[in-house]
Amino acid sequence: MPIATVRGVDINYQVLGERGPWVALQPGGRRGLVGVKSLAEKIAEAGNRVLVYDRRNCGASGISFDGGNSENEVWAADLHELLLQLDALPAFIGGSSSGCRLALLAALRHPADVRGLLLWRVTGGAFAAGRLVQNYYTQFIEAAERGGMEAVCRTEHFAELIAGNPANRGRLMSMGVERFIGIMNIWRRAFNEGADHPIIGISPAELRSLTMPTCIIPGNDRTHPREPGQIAHRLMPNAEYHEVLTEDRPDLDVALEDWNAKEGLLAAIFIDFLRRALRRA
């Protein structure tokens, strides 16, 4: 796959489709591009060019903890630069879970970049906030405090990054443990500051300010309950709402298997939205 140097970091990416409007998709969590590639292929087959990529500190991309008071701010700035390099602006920006929050932040920071938003598995609520801050930050802070950067390298997430890109081990080991903990604490604090919003990290006033066409598909599990998507639909002035999974799964933290089974329907909704948004433009 091609590699782009984005703000000093190697970003692994792929463009699916050869012509048509640009769409950029991000998966949830810190998953790599494989998390949205199958969906992207379906959207590309309908006549779009779809960018999928590994965010920094994800997949086969490089590791870097430079700059930014929040992780999503760093990712949004990277996406803007990557789309500029590909001459892909403006684009439709989409994402699931953390990718949804990234898409919203990209629209807030660079509204001229964004022709429309594709948002699914929207994240909010006390359970999600508690679970995610542990998964994203606290576990790595605790590992570093216990065993330094060697212990961080052994965590499941960073071990996967090293397996996918062995140079990442050297980058991690060369980083001072105090600096690593300091940055993780800054990012954890920024996450917690937005944890009480209906969508984690995005205030109601910010949602009201986003006027671009938006397609919202809510989640159905404890981390992605239905309500945050419903609230976003009510607040965003040019949003439409669709449900792919009508059964709530309060027994599951993440219902990924349910979503994988409905990927064809998810793609069909997004393709129809893209076509209608382009006709209105």
Account of the protein in words:
With 281 residues, the chain is α/β, with parallel strands linked by helices. It folds into 2 domains: 3-124 and 201-280, Rossmann fold (3-Layer(aba) Sandwich); 129-191, no CATH class. Helices cover 50% and strands 15% of the residues. It contains 11 helices and 8 strands. It has helices at 34-45, 71-85, 98-109, 126-154, 156-164, 167-173, 177-193, 204-209, 226-235, 256-261, 263-280, and strands at residues 3-6, 9-16, 22-26, 49-53, 91-96, 114-120, 214-217, 239-241. A hairpin with a 2-residue loop joins strand 1 (3-6) and strand 2 (9-16). The model has no long low-confidence stretch (mean pLDDT 95).
Strand and helix map with partners:
Blueprint: E1 3-6, E2 9-16, E3 22-26, H1 34-45, E4 49-53, H2 71-85, E5 91-96, H3 98-109, E6 114-120, H4 126-154, H5 156-164, H6 167-173, H7 177-193, H8 204-209, E7 214-217, H9 226-235, E8 239-241, H10 256-261, H11 263-280
Parallel strand pairs: 3-4, 3-5, 5-6, 6-7, 7-8
Antiparallel strand pairs: 1-2, 2-4
Helix pairs in contact: 1-11, 2-3, 4-7
What distinguishing features does this structure have?
281 residues; alpha/beta; Rossmann fold; 2 domains; eight-stranded mixed beta sheet; 11 helices; 50% helix
CATH class of the largest domain: Alpha Beta
User: What is the name of the CATH topology of the largest domain?
Assistant: Rossmann fold
Report the β-strand fraction as a percent range: 5-15%
CATH arch. level architecture of the largest domain: 3-Layer(aba) Sandwich
The quaternary organization reads as single chain
Q: What is the domain tally?
A: 2
Helix content: 40-55%
Question: Low-confidence spans: pLDDT under 50, at least 5 residues?
Answer: none
Kindly state the number of beta strands: 8
Q: Alpha-carbon distance between the termini?
A: 33 Å
Strand order of the largest sheet: 1-2-4-3-5-6-7-8
Total of helices = 11
* Shape category: globular
